[in-house]
Here is the input.
Amino acid sequence: MFSQTLGTALGDWTADSAGLGYVGSALLFSSMLAVVCAFYYWTSISRTLLFWTAFVLTRPLGAVVGDFLDKPLDAGGLALSRYAASAVLFVFIMGCILIFSQRASKQAH
Here is the structure.
């Protein structure tokens, strides 16, 4: 509940008070997640720390993307209904599942 509430508040703050808008905020948090991914592949930083960092960053990203999809056009959104916004997110998630296939890990026995 703590990360969800603060994450949503952070997303709203960057979009509204910091003046980045929904798209700018989404780009900011997506870029931060990309940095976490880069750290995963090219550093030896704790995987646990990287997981929790990514976990926390998904909250504000989700908040600004959700707001972008369903807020009115004059507020910077796309004015989609909740059903249409949910459909867009569903298609995106299914596309990611199909594009980024999972591989079983190879563990030493």
About this structure: The chain has a mean pLDDT of 91. Residues 2-99 form one domain.
